[in-house]
Specification:
Layout (H helix, E strand, L loop, with lengths): L1 H46 L16 H12 L5 H16 L11 H10 L6 E2 L7 E4 L3 E4 L4 E5 L10 E8 L7 E6 L15 E5 L3 E4 L6 E2 L9 E7 L4 E6 L2 E7 L7 E6 L3 E6 L8 H6 L25 H22 L2 E3 L6 E3 L8 E2 L11 E2 L13 H10 L10 H11 L1
Antiparallel strand pairs: 1-4, 2-3, 3-14, 4-13, 5-10, 5-14, 6-7, 6-13, 7-8, 8-9, 10-11, 11-12, 15-16, 17-18
Helix pairs in contact: 6-7
Length: 418
Amino acid sequence: MATRDTETTVAAMSSGAARVLVPLFSTLASSTMLFVLVILIYYVRFRRHGRIMLGNGLPGAFDDAQQAQREEEMYLHTLDDQARQQYFQAKAFQEANPPDSANTDISLSQFMSIQEKGVSAWEFEPDLEATTCFVECRTELAFYDQECSVQTNLPIPKQNDVYYWEAKLYDFPESTIAAIGVATKPYPAFRLPGYNRHSVGYLTDGTKRRNQPFFGKTYGPVCRQGDVIGCGYKPRTGTVFFTRNGKKLEEAATGYRQNIFPSVGANGPCQIHVNFGQAGFVFIEANVKKWGLAPMNGTLAPPPAYGSSEITDSVLLAAGFSAQRSSAEDRHGSTGSLLDSHPDDGSVMPYQSDISLATIAPRHHGFDAGQVVGPSSRTGGPPSYTSEQRRQQSATGAQGPPPPLSPEIQDHSRYERM
């Protein structure tokens, strides 16, 4: 009887342990399988073929340095000697001048220039040492025989949702290839946009290049003379897109968070005119939504014109005008009475401390060479005012009676009447 009770107790305990352990082991097995699955997904997405998580938080983004190294090993032998030399020169340039090496933010003076000039504040800055590209009227570009590119003086702003600009192909031979796009600064001036890191460009042969010096990917139609290529930028997502003759193409690149500059380049003779918003766009949506880089006209009022009544409203300018007027009156008075009668013989002699503007008379007609002919009693001319009389007349602003004649002139008049 006791043995049977013991067996019953053991069976009950075993069944209770089974009810506890089975769910526990099942939970542990499920957790282990879920953990293994997460590790496998992470490895497949972010670790396979050198993919990593970059510091900007973009999941699955490529490491540009490793990707460029692999492409260099695969495609460098396909380039000719000149292209290979340009590739190494551009690589050395960007290693010595990374995008963060210079401050490219819009400064206060540049911001004030935008407020005053509007979209006219943007202009292309050519390399003064190179003779392969010239800039006329700020946005008219002329390229010649060698590969060359130019960038604007100001980056694309980031306040609005979208910014847009266009480039029209003038005098464009079919043998020339041009690239329109954006790039960071500094960028090698002997390379087209899209050929090096931190750049993207739409080439006239219908291909797109993003950080790609070896080959381009088919992107859009081939462009010829008279076509208009547009480039748009969305600062919030860092997206770059292109248009051709007013038709929008697919997005070309994303993730451009740095300051980027409109860039245009060509490898042969051609002329390209760029429109940043100073005229209407071919892309209608950009016209309706006003996607230009800045307003067509500046919002900062120009200074008032000289001589207007607005200038006198300023206390500082009014004080300056008063000081200038009194200074001019003092100069007038100092030169007004340059002549005086000699105490002995009645001749007219200039003061030694004044500057006389009278004419020196020749020796004939009874005068010495040192004597001065002036408006005196000898010539019968009108007498000159003194400094005090000129100051009083200027202060009152009225034309009063002439000053009284000096005694010498009165004697001379009396002598003439006799």
